[in-house]
Amino acid sequence: MHLSAGDAGGTGGTGDGPGGTRREPPENYRPGELSVVVHRNGPVRIVTVGGELDHDSADGLRTALAGLPEEGLARILVDLAELRFCDSTGLNILLRARQEAERAGVRLEVAGPRPALVRLFAVTGADTVLRVHPTLALALETGAGPAGERA
After folding, report:
1. What is the pLDDT of residues 7-51, one digit of tens each?
2. In the predicted model, what is the mean pLDDT of the chain?
3. Which residues does 137 contact at the CB level (< 8 Å), separation at least 6?
4. Which of 76, 99, 118, 128 is the most buried (most CB within 10 A)?
5. CA-based Rg of the chain, rounded to a whole angstrom?
6. Cα–Cα distance list, 135 to 25, 60, 74 (Å)
């Protein structure tokens, strides 16, 4: 998780981004691809994921969530608002990253999952270990609490 402020890919979707800005897919975006954008907001690493997350596209997210410890990092927020598809590979990456983050004293939380992903979390029990926020904005507002604390 030693990606500091910067871009690990395009934005990969057409939703309202943080602060109400509309994000458009990059010019070279193709359906079925995954985009991952990483930046720091103080002690928070925000990983924005868009497109389709499966076995063939998972390396970008795996890289964005790797590399702990990182100086001054308290939280990792994975923004899933633009993620259209996620299979078991993506779910496993999130769960493993949460374990690694917890061992390093960092909280990993997710924000903005679409209904199908919320259902996947519920069916698999992932929602019992992942702190899930309805939106990135709400996740950023609720920043207090030790690692492992759930909403």
Report:
1. 333 333 334 444 444 455 555 545 568 999 999 999 999 999 999
2. 81
3. 18, 19
4. 76
5. 14
6. 20, 22, 19
CA atoms of 42 and 89, how far apart (whole Å)? 30
> Which of 85, 45, 49, 42 shows the shortest CA–CA distance to 66?
45
For residues 77 and 140, is the Cβ–Cβ distance under 8 A? yes
d(CA 129, CA 144): 17
Three state DSSP letters for the chain:
CCCCCECCCCCCCCCECHHHCECCCCCCCCCCCEEEEEEEECCEEEEEEEEEECCCCCHHHHHHCCCCCCCCCCEEEEEEEEEEEECHHHHHHHHHHHHHHHHCCCEEEEECCCHHHHHHHHHHCHHHCCEEECCHHHHHHCCCCCCCCCC
Which residues have CB under 8 Å from 39's CB, separation 6+? 5, 6, 7, 45, 46
Q: Is 139 exposed, middle or buried (0-12, 13-18, 19+ CB in 10 A)?
A: buried
| 57, amino acid identity | S
Separation CA 64–CA 61 (nearest Å): 5
**Is-above-0.70 flag for pTM?**
yes
Q: Scan for tokens 């990182």, then name that residue.
A: 70
